[in-house]
Amino acid sequence: MTEGDILVYRTQQWLNTTYGDDSRFGSVPEDGRTGWPTIYGLLRALQIELGIQNTANNFGPSTISKFNTKYPTGIHQRIDNDFQEDNIYAIIQGALFCKGYSTGVMNITKHFYNGTGNAIKQLKEDAGIDHSSSTVTLNIMKAL
What we know:
By secondary structure, this protein is mainly α. The protein has six helices and no strands.
């Protein structure tokens, strides 16, 4: 990588490594530049995690329905000693990196701790909505 953002680049690498063998994903360029290919890659990764068989480059009715079924109260920040890893947390981190938000780490961790939570709160504050919670609701996931 000669130009671009290192965190976006690491997100692109993680996406290709994690989902590249899945025919529903395809691939994203590893150039460190946030663009539609990376955003669509994050969306297809989300759809794969939600169990959608026919992924698409949009946040349509199936994605909304599956998200609401799997996360009826949103995706919640974990307590610091909860070592649960989940690709959904990595997708959130990668989307935050692509939007220029810091999670306090220099790589995808697959955790949702204070750093990611604070970035979600900052995103909410920047959007002019209640930022007292780090919960990733449907609308926040759509914004990411």
